Amino acid sequence: MVGISTIAVAFLIMLVIMLMGIPIASVMLIMGVIGGVLAFGWPLVDSTGPVMWSVMNDNLLTAIPLFILLGELMLRSGMADRMYGATALWLNRLPGGLLHTNIGCCAMFAATSGSSVATAATIGTVATPSLNERGYDKAQSLGSIAAGGTLGILIPPSVNLLIYGSLAETSIGQLFVAGIVPGLLLVVFFMLWIVIRNWNDTSTQIEDVPLAEKLRASSAMIPPAIIFLVVMGSIYLGIATPTESAALGVVTALVIVAIGGHLSAEFFGRCFIQTARTTGMVLLIVLAAFILNVTLSLTGVAQTTTNWVTSLGLSATELLLVLIVFYVLLGMFMDVLSMMVLTIPIAVPVVTSMGVDPVWFGIFIIIMCELGMITPPVGMNLYVVHGVRQDDGPFTDLIRGAFPYVIIMILFVLLLIWLPGIATWLPRTMYG
């Protein structure tokens, strides 16, 4: 069994290599193989073959390309554009106007796409023309899109929750259910901040429209709602597994797209090519993570870390407070997938040994990863939204606009620690 100093040095070496620009999958593969060879010799390398085969044949991971494809179908069929316009009619009279529409549409798109980057890119592309036309403050408008996009990995179905469940061997169904209440509460808190920030500003509000027109426009929300009900309803009712529900969602989306007359060879080509690219990147990282996990488990890294943390005499709450600081700092320099696959195999055994619910901890990690998506210098959503804005404004607009949401999310995590039932009540109620 390796010592804690060796583990710390190896982890720092991995971080340094990543910061040099080497792909995360390559770093984990190299560290897993080298560490395994140093500890057990070449027979360890021979054992990675069955691991790779079993991981890539895991039925659960099939849900990842299906959910990615589902998001592509929604994006390229124009569902997101119509959904944004309909939501704007209902929310534009609130203080902050279209900023609420940004958050609301991000939440609805997240409920079907499962990806934060896709959510931020889609809503950013759709929203920025209207925001610019009506003279919204750049920092506020762009920051709300970047922060709203983070909801894509929390509100189910979520690709990142799938990856956490796979790495932590935790029920995907329970994780999906656990993400609903925290996701909706974050939407409410984001909107409350917008109301407070713009309480006396009426310059961006537009005239109200008749109720009949709002109701007619709301028909654009029916397709996403149907897809969400099919995907999540089939899981909650026990009709389908997460993988099967993803397939049902894709079939439902295809039917809706066909009815709308958008099906074509070009349409399929764009959707399938982008899905293949994203899926290849995600699954390559997952595969490398499992190979690294073989070395971690055989060398007793998780047990050594657990014993070391226990010897510090920290309570579960104190440990979680330390992890908040750790993940905030890590999120400044690493992308979400890298953070997850590097820390989950070590962190989960440590916190569960102290009585922390692994389902609750999954929501904790996802929210901390959300923070990493809007904290510079490596805040992925910040760069995505900056890339789709239609002017040549400074990147500091994104940083200023996203900062209040970083504070809100940190405060929400503290609330989650104080009231863990926010994440655990619904799955315990539904699953017993």
Largest beta-sheet details: none
What is the H/E string? HHHHHHHHHHHHHHHHHHHHHHH
> How widely separated are the two ends?
38 Å
Q: Helical amount among residues, as a percent range?
A: over 70%
Radius of gyration: 22 Å
What is the number of E strands? Answer: 0
Q: Uncertain spans, ≥5 residues at pLDDT below 50? A: none
Q: Please, how many helices?
A: 23
pLDDT averaged over residues: 83
Can you tell me the overall shape? globular
β-strand amount: under 5%
Q: Kindly name the structural category.
A: mainly alpha
Description:
The chain is an all-alpha fold and 432 residues long. The chain is globular. The model has no long low-confidence stretch (mean pLDDT 83). The longest helix is centred in the middle third of the chain and has 34 residues, at 265-298. It has 23 helices and no strands. It has helices at residues 4-19, 24-40, 43-46, 48-56, 63-76, 79-91, 98-113, 116-133, 138-149, 159-168, 172-178, 180-197, 211-217, 222-236, 242-259, 265-298, 301-311, 316-331, 336-353, 358-372, 380-388, 396-418, 421-431. Helix 1 (4-19) packs antiparallel against helix 2 and helix 7 (98-113) packs antiparallel against helix 8.
Strand-helix topology:
Layout: H1 4-19, H2 24-40, H3 43-46, H4 48-56, H5 63-76, H6 79-91, H7 98-113, H8 116-133, H9 138-149, H10 159-168, H11 172-178, H12 180-197, H13 211-217, H14 222-236, H15 242-259, H16 265-298, H17 301-311, H18 316-331, H19 336-353, H20 358-372, H21 380-388, H22 396-418, H23 421-431
